[in-house]
Amino acid sequence: MRKSVLNLCLVSVFTVQILMAYSFANFEPQVSYKCLIQMTNYTGEKAYVVVSLIDPDGKYVKTLYVQGDDKEWFPDLRSWWKFSDGINENIDAITGATIGNGQRNIVSLSFDTSQIDSGHKVRFESAVENQEYYKIDAEIELNSATIKEKVEGKGYIRYIRMVPN
Amino acid sequence: MIVSIWRYSHLFLAISSSLFLLIASITGVILAVEPIANKVQPYNVSGADSLSLAEVLNPINAVYDEVLLVSRDRNGFVSVTVIIDGKNESFYIDPYTGERLGDLIQKAPVFQFATNLHRSLFLKSFGRFFVGLTSLLLFFIAVSGIVLIAKRQGGYSKFFSPVVRENFSQYHHVVYARIVLLPVLVLALTGVYLSLLRFDVIPQQQVSHEVDFDRLREEPLKNYKDFELLKNTSLSELRELEYPFSEFVEDYYIVRLKNKEVLLNQYTGEVLGQQKYPFVTMASAWANVLHTGEGSILWSTVLGLGSLSIPFLMVTGFIIYFKRPKTRIKNRFSKNECDHVILVGTEGGTTLQYAQEFHRQVVKMGKKSYLGLMNDYGLFKKMDECVVITATYGQGEAPASATRFMELVEKHPQSRPFSFSVIGFGSTAYPNFCQYAYDVQEKLKNLSNAQVFEEVFTVNNQSFQAFLDWTNRWAKSHGMTLHLKKPKATLHKNHASDFVVVGRLDLEKEDTFLLTLKNISGTKTVSGDLLSLTTEKDGIERLYSIGNLGNDILAISVKKHPHGICSNWLGQLDNDEILSARVVKNRHFHLPKGSKEAVLIATGTGIGPFLGMISSNTAKRKLRLYWGGRTPESFCLYQSHINKAISKKQLEHFIPAYSRSQPNKVYVQHLIKRDGNKIAEVLRKGGCVMICGSINMQGEVMNELKNICSTYLNKDLSYYQNRGQIKMDCY
């Protein structure tokens, strides 16, 4: 009788530990940043901009945000599409409307705390129908000391600003 | 000439843009549904538009920690973009409570597909260009269409007057084109504008503010609820309100209203910059709304119907083009060796068929005859005799093949004297009957070496019989006999039906009789339709007006002509004999269903169709019948019908005129004149006047009607003709 109670206790402790381990894996502390994308006064169609997380080796980790609602044009963002389409990433929940020249868009980006100050970057690549494609229009280091600084874009993006949420 | 330039441009533009136009209009119809489907979504909170911006922001700020954007779309739906748990979310809210109402409307795949096809045909920039071009062509099509309608109607002031009906396609093409003119023009123009905007032909200007960042202050601190702009601007003015990106004073509120953009210091509410939107931006917004119908169910519906009409107009337009017989004229002799010259003014080609038949028979008689269009008028070196056979376009204009005739007559004086005759084709149902033929007659009369052979002869409703009368007379005076055959295209397609003779009444003295027939094939017949009889003996068609007495009993009233093959043959028919004939629909001589009153005017056998109309009448519709005969005895054929109708109140008044029973002759027109005020009253109330009988009587009665209209109604008779209130069937 005592033995069985002990067994039961052990089982429940293990169960709780396993559950906790799982929940920690799922709920690793996250930080979110507000990110402002300001476009230049270029001429042409609305721009497609995709925001991705890049690891210290320069490889894509995941897509953070897609500014563009028509999948027809995604392949134009060649480098990112190769990655995202390659891993069959589900990006439905993180897509928003395109914006035109001179406009701005504010989005919220979330990162795991481990990705901050560890050499990760946030990349903004952009394309406009029948115009040049920018593999790196702007890129921001996930460095808590410098992240609030305005970063100028090279293509359709005038600048990017990020602040902790 | 001028009509044909416009007509060919209209056709050429339509053909060259047809494929793209068809795609754009069909997708356009689909896209017209989208704004309607959006507008009916339940996200509109009534009364909210009068809230001030501050009142709207208050609940939003209370409910959500981090707000990025508040916007109001053209449907009046208010949405916010907020950050919840680190994620961007956008949804509609109730502006009173900030409470979430539902997700943003996603563009349905079918609309996405239709939009892409509509804008770019899936050909990206290339396709965009073609759609823009198609829009421009549509505009030109509409403009050339306006000119064509104006020409057809006889001027821009008559643009909306009733259309002369030739056939289904022609009639509905014109009628519907007029109705949808406005939305089609708007769609075409805004379409062109939006394309020009796309291709940066119209430069888009951004508003840019110059903010003096050195002067930004955080004091005096004010609550946003006390910011003047937010307090005094109502939600209905709002397009978008962007919250400051961060708490730095350099970040500010951006408030986009319908006509301007304002920057507000987030701490003090000071206006940092204010710019009105440039004209192009405002115009573009309008073009967008007008082109898409966004935000308005009514306008979307109008645009949708306009778009839907385009395929219809294309189809009917092409039918008109293909139905218009091509003018193929072959001449055995050159124009300079012919002494007979036949010139044709035709619009649809029917007139040409008659002229061709005439020409063929004249050539058969060994004469040198030349057939040409009136626009081919030139020097005819050997011409002795000129026959002009012409229709009239619209309200008295020259038909397509005669547009330059008048100037050509001036330009090419003939070297030899010649005589001429003019035959006009037209319909008495419309004003300016054969007007152009009379104009031509006047023109030729004034030439010094031209001699009138005879006055203008008119042919009503392409009556082959009338045309035969003229050709026979003409041939006789030229010592010929012609055997014209009826052109095939005008033969009626409906089948022959059998009729059995059930009764006949004769008036030997006047050679007239009333035949009652029973329709045994069940062909539907309405009083006013025509019975077409062709005897084997000569193959020529004769038409008799039918009166439907009910129960498939038809009455025809016939006068025997001394040498009339058909009337004499009919005159011999006995009871129970069967005759085979076709019923020809004669819609323009039916008693209008909705009319409350009508005046029926007939002489002699012209009473036939009226007997039917009266017998199917009820007391609700007041009918007056004027009938002209020689003596009271002439009336006995119809007496029983009329007496019965009066006792059953189917006929209100019967007013006879007898021309031979008293010393001073009384004709129907005299009685019409006497009762002018009563007839005017009927016309004024929208009732109609129907005339059936001889052409002579028609002319006299029309003269009286003309006087009545100007005396009692202050209007021209043509006004009532155009409204279909004057109906005639005369021979």
Percent helix range of chain B: 25-40%
Q: End-to-end distance of chain B, in Å?
A: 34 Å
> What is the CATH-assigned architecture of chain A?
Sandwich
The multimeric state of the shown protein is heterodimer
> What string, H for helix and E for strand, traces the elements of chain A in order?
HEEEHEEEEEE
Largest interface: A-B, 25 and 22 residues
Coarse shape of chain A: globular
Question: What is the residue-mean pLDDT of chain B, rounded to a whole number?
Answer: 87
Sum up the overall morphology of chain B in one term: elongated
From the N-terminal CA to the C-terminal CA of chain A, the straight-line distance is: 55 Å
For the CA atoms, what is the radius of gyration of chain A?
21 Å
User: What percentage of the residues of chain A does DSSP assign to strands (E)?
Assistant: 35-45%
Structural class label of chain B: alpha/beta
The biggest beta sheet of chain B reads: 8 strands, antiparallel
Account of the 3D structure:
The complex is a heterodimer of chains A (165) and B (731). Chain A is α+β, with helices and mostly antiparallel strands and 165 residues long. Chain A has one domain: Sandwich (Immunoglobulin-like), CATH 2.60.40. Chain A contains two helices and nine strands; from the N terminus they run αβββαββββββ. In chain A, strand 3 (60-67), helix 2 and strand 4 (95-96) form a beta-alpha-beta unit. The longest helix of chain A has 25 residues, at 2-26. Chain A is globular. Chain B contains 20 helices and 26 strands. The mean pLDDT of chain B is 87. The chains are: A alpha+beta (165), B alpha/beta (731). The A-B interface holds A 30, 32, 34, 36, 41, 43-45, 65, 69-70, 72, 96, 101-102, 104, 106-108, 110, 129-130, 161, 163, 165 and B 66, 68-69, 81, 83, 86-88, 90, 107, 112, 116, 124-125, 198, 200, 204, 206, 208, 242, 245-246. Chain A: InterPro entries: DUF2271.
How would you describe this structure in keywords?
heterodimer, A: 165 residues, alpha+beta, Immunoglobulin-like, 9 strands, globular, B: 731 residues, alpha/beta, Rossmann fold, Elongation Factor Tu (Ef-tu), domain 3, 4 domains, eight-stranded antiparallel β-sheet
